[in-house]
Here is the input.
Amino acid sequence: MPMTHRRIIIIGTGPAGYTAAIYASRANLQPLVLEGVQPGGQLTITTEVENFPGFRNGIQGPELMEELRAQAQRLGTEIASETVLSVELGQRPFRLVTESGAYTCDALVIATGASAKWLGIGKDEDLGRKGGGVSACATCDGFFYRGKDVAVVGGGDTALEEALYLTNFASRVHLVHRREGFRASKAMQDRALAHPKITVHWNQVVADLRTRRFEASPGNEVEKLGSLLLRDIRDGRESSLAVDGLFVAIGHRPNTAFLQGQLPVDANGYLLVEKGSSRTVIPGVFACGDVQDSVYRQAITAAGSGCMAAIDAERWLAETSTSIPKETTHV
Ligand code: NDP
Here is the structure.
C-alpha cells in the first residue's frame, strides 16, 4: 500500500480545516488536507451566509468555501480527495488509512465537523440543501423569516434556543415535539413556554412536508416549503400546519467514527480538548471546529479554533521535532 509521510495532516475541509491549513501553510509546514465525503462541510449545504465577517453583502456558503480552499492552496496547502477510514494514534508517527492508501504524520489536526440530524421524511435534507425553507441552523437562516410563520422540531436545548432566537424575526414560532415534556434545561423551558410568540404542539411528529412550486424569476422554478403534515402520536390524527420555514433541531452527530474510540468524547460524542486550546489527550493530536464544539457551532468560531489548532500544532512540532521517529516509508 502506498504510504506518504507529512509533518502535519489536517482531516476535514470546513472553515476549521481550511483555516488550520492556511495557518500551517504560512508556518511552512506544507500541510496535507484530506477532504472527506463532504468537501467544504456544512456550509456547502446552506445558501446565503450573512454572519461571516468581511462580506458586507453576505456570501453564498459554497462560494465562501471555494474562497477558503483557494486561499489555502495559494499558500501551499495540498488537498487530497480522500476519506479517512481509520487512524492509529497509539504510535509515532501517527498512521491514517484511507480508501486508496495510507499516510503517516507527526502532527494531526482533526476538523471533521458534525452533521445535523435530519428527520428523513419528505426530502427535508434536500430542501435544506437548496434553501427550500428547511434549515438546521436558526442563527444562520432565521433572518430570512422576518414576519413569517416558522416551526422548530425537537425538545432539547437546541430546539428551544432556536425557537427563542427565531422570535426575533418570525411572527409565530411553532415548536413541534414528539412527547409531552421537553428534555431542555428548566431555565430554557421556562423562557420558551412563557414567550408569547411560541406555540407548543405536544405529542406531534412531522409526518410529511408539503411544498409549493413557483417561478422565482423567468425560467427559474423553485420548490419551497408550504406546510407540515403533523401526526398526533396518541391517536394518529393528522393536521396541517402552514409555515414558511422548518428548523430541524433534533441534534447533531460529531463525525468521529473513524477514530474508533481512540480519543475521549463527552456525553454527546464531541471530542474533548484541553480548555482554551485545541490539544486532545494525545500529544500531537489536535481538534478544532464542530467536532469538538457542541455549544457555538458557527463558521467563524470553527475558523477561529482552526487557527488555534494550527498554532498549537506548530508549537508542538517545534518543541518535539527531534524526538519524533523518522518515517519508515516514502512514496
Ligand atoms: P438533544 O439530543 O438534547 O435533543 C434532541 C431533541 O430532538 C430531543 O427532544 C428529542 O426528542 C428530539 N428528537 C430526536 N430525534 C427526533 C426525531 N427523529 N423526530 C423528532 N424529534 C426528535 O440535542 P440538542 O441538540 O438539543 O442538544 C445537544 C446537547 O447540547 C445537549 O446536552 C444540550 O444540553 C446541549 N446544548 C446546550 C445549549 C446551552 O446550554 N445553551 C444549547 C444547545 C445545546 P426526545 O426528547 O423525545 O428524545
Notes: The chain has seven helices and 19 strands.
